Structure formats: structure tokens, C-alpha cells
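Translate sequence into C-alpha cells.
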Amino acid sequence: MNETRNVPEKKFSTGVITATVWQNQGKGRNGEIVGYRTVSLQRRYKDKNGVWQTANSFRVNDLPRASLVLQKSYEYLVIREQEANAPDYVDEDIIEEVI
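Result follows.
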């Protein structure tokens, strides 16, 4: 059986806070293989022995940075989806700004 290791698709970091976008596969309702993405959020810190550790809990001062990396992850995923669904041509009469 071939096992493949899931590797991060994209990482967004600010200081010790990181959001990682993962590409995953699973079975859909009809048994077909479908792709989907998930985002993990982590905080790195050094323990009392100076060894780097990972936590999934955040201090109050971590929250603005966590919000920023999550927002960047969301933007990345939305833009990626829009690009995947975009037509191969651009009709200049239909161009509008997407916010």
C-alpha cells in the first residue's frame, strides 16, 4: 500500500503564530475521491529548558496575530477558488472589482 505524507500547501506566519493550509482528500457522498482544504493554527514557544514546543492555545496578545494569519489563509483560499473557477478568457465588458 502506498502511503503519502500530507505536506502543507501554504503557511502564513507572524512571529510565533502560524496558520497552515493543508490539501486533503476524502470520499464524497457517492464514494468518489474529493479534495478539500483545512487550516491549522499554532503558537510556538520555548519551554523552561529552551526547547521549542507547539500549542493550540493563545494568550490575549496573540489574538491579533492569530486573526491576521487566519485572514491571510482565508484570502488565499478564496482567491484560489476564484482562479480555479475563472473562465479561460476575459470579456472586458464584464470586468468588475471583486472585494
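Note: The chain has a mean pLDDT of 86.
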